[in-house]
What does this fold into?
Amino acid sequence: TQLLEQSPQFLSIQEGENLTVYCNSSSVFSSLQWYRQEPGEGPVLLVTVVTGGEVKKLKRLTFQFGDARKDSSLHITAAQPGDTGLYLCAGAPSGTYKYIFGTGTRLKVLA
Amino acid sequence: SAVISQKPSRDICQRGTSLTIQCQVDSQVTMMFWYRQQPGQSLTLIATANQGSEATYESGFVIDKFPISRPNLTFSTLTVSNMSPEDSSIYLCSVIRTGANVLTFGAGSRLTVL
It folds into this structure.
């Protein structure tokens, strides 16, 4: 069974600080996705990383896919209260669309 | 991306009863899925809803407990049967559109069982 472990589980920081969230697996994924979920809503896709070593930037968010395609990271620069939410990585076993979600990182950014 | 409407958005139910959750999509989609999110937890896939045939359930989930229908390409229902407090969760409908590799989620149905 493929598992995605995220760390840290919880993170509470002050506005303006930087942070990194990690997503690790013992299995290889053809791609990994990152989602953010806010209270009362479903998860919303932030990015998909496909190529080992790939780096993608989305404004203050930087996503990286590990060279071996077993892990990924999300770095947020100068966090803002609007970044507060549950961050989830997800991947699907090769040849399926059955996405497995990571254990989640709950971020709170204090003003 | 597809727009998904789920209802009810929330409900409080008594132990032993059943509740059906509806998922309506604004366009035809290839794949429809049902996920469960227990309090403070991540998402777990319950099943893939197959049009016109029985759903495909993941390990730990069975049809008698979570019957699913998908009569057409834009609509599906999930029933949570004989509920117990352990069934208190958010149930999320998600879809993948034809030719895409992106999951789009509904807002979820928050179920509390007393």
